[in-house]
Amino acid sequence: MKRVIGLGGVFFKAKNDPRELKNWYERHLGILPSLDEGNAPFWEWRSMADPERVGETVWSVFSPGTTYLVPSDAPFMINYRVEDLVELLKVLKEEGVEIAGEMQEFEYGKFAWILDPDGNKIELWEPAEKSGFTGGMPMK
Prior knowledge:
2 helices; 2,3-Dihydroxybiphenyl 1,2-Dioxygenase, domain 1; alpha+beta; single chain
């Protein structure tokens, strides 16, 4: 069974104003702001193994008070794309990996969270066949 098949996104907390930090990244690194308040920038790409399938990698800055990264106290979280989230969660649980919360399912895919040995929260994402995801991760 394949486990991680790619990077789905990078999420981190701003120390102060997330808009100012986001503007800095736009100005200096060219990471474009979202088109509306609730969406995060993303990059579309194609897999070499399946060039017809479009994938997305999301980049998002969260407010300092976000609870999205809890129970971790790290200011970041990495989202990894996986192929079969339900099966992977079974295997991870058998291996003693700490699962953080319940799996959630949306029209753009399934999500679950685990903690690494240092307490960093990791998001696992199995995109829907046609995810339709357009950077809709809110800046909480």
